[in-house]
Design brief:
94 residues; 3-stranded antiparallel beta sheet; globular; dUTPase-like domain-containing protein; dCTP_deaminase
Length: 94
Amino acid sequence: MPYNENAIDCAAYTLRIGNENYISPDHKVEILSQHTKQKLRPGEGFAIPPGQFAFLTTQEEITVPDTAIAFISIRARPKFRGLINISGWLRRKL
């Protein structure tokens, strides 16, 4: 996705959820193969059940130069509702 100037907030850039996600199956899913990657339509939402892991993509691809550092964090409202960001993704070009 192209750079969006409206996504800048102070020293932060707000990433947008991409069109694919994977949410780990909970105890209610009987056939695990039916619960795989989910494609989302524009504007479509999704829920992450309590205690489950979700792998989410972003619309943006970020490049950070070797001379800089970047942090991936989560907005306060989802954090206060119990969502925890445990990691980001680093893909380094060699």
